[in-house]
Amino acid sequence: MGALSHLRILDLSRVLAGPWCTQNLADFGADVIKIERPGSGDDTRRWGPPYLRDGAGQDTAEAAYYLAANRNKRSLTLDIASPAGQAIVRELAAQSDVVVENYKVGQLKKYGLDYDSLKAVKPDLVYCSITGFGQTGPYAPRAGYDFIVQGMGGFMSITGERDALPGGGPQKAGVAIADLMTGMYATVAILAALAHRDRTGEGQYVDMALLDVQVAMLANMNTNFLASERAPVRWGNAHPNIVPYQTFETSDGWIIVAVGNDGQFRKFVEAGQRPELADDPRFATNPERVRQRDVLVPILADMVRQKSKAQWIDQLEAAGVPCGPINTLPEVFDNPQVQARSLRIDLPHPSGGQARLVNNPIKMSATPPQAESAPPTLGQHTEAILRERLAYDDARIAALRAAGVI
């Protein structure tokens, strides 16, 4: 019994922010019904290659992107533009604790599936809308995309190599951080709303916006700016106030060296057979190293290139100098710590293959999240849900299928 196994979630979201949120809830046992368009489903099902492979090693219709955010859910295909489809959503909402959707502002109102409409059938409903810019403000009608929001929200102004260096300029993150963080914030908001409902019997509306989250997650960069009124700049993999605190290329790969004090700097250069650098007055203290960054860093870069990644990691860890590798994903999943924490999971898929996934990282002693089922195929549970939840018989289901509603 998962911590949230008493909850029913109606998931009208697709792509990433909403599905990431509902996957979190599903991992803790909530019964998540994913509503998808008949014939096509979630857009990310087709965001490939790569695709999941079946038992014969052939590509299926399930893109790896889709697999990342949809485990432990049940898929029901439904045309919500049809009156019959809308009626089914309302019937399911009347039995649900939470509705999550990420349609454009106002789009569901014309179907009678907005918060006010569903609140009429389930007064204590928690209803979470996820959009690019929220339900209010001049940008509310705009479609929101993670890449654009990373730029608008300031993230790309502090991410990327320094403008004066080769390759300098703004850089997005390697994953859709605004989407993912919005999914995480939405999870927290839904759980808070449910706690309030359980105490008071009152449901509520949750308005989540990618831009809001992107701005909020800049954390200390925000407060640095607000305190100083000076806009932070890009430093690439370097640190504005500590040297050396950056990446270096070894003879066979990259490492991170994070020297936090003068003693660690001495140990670092001793490991590189350059102890005289620690005695050089230009480099002996961190303030001087910051001032002489452009002189020192090329010397250190040449020093680091003389040894392999493994040699540097072994020597610096033994000396107590903070360091770490920059692993490729094959190296990540071969890492003994990652393996010991059971971060990779394989779940049987209806195609006969295995869905290779990443486990929920939360560890709990009594009610840990569980990976029970692979992301569903399109409409995999349609008939079962209609029978179980709404007591539809075979004839009614057949009629809905013939009409293209499911």
From TrEMBL:
Pfam families: CoA_transf_3 (PF02515). InterPro entries: CoA-transferase_III_domain, CoA-Trfase_fam_III, CoA-Trfase_III_dom3_sf, CoA-Trfase_III_dom_1_sf. The keyword Transferase applies. SUPFAM superfamilies: CoA-transferase family III (CaiB/BaiF). Keywords: Transferase. The keyword Transferase applies. This is CoA-transferase. GO terms for molecular function: CoA-transferase activity.
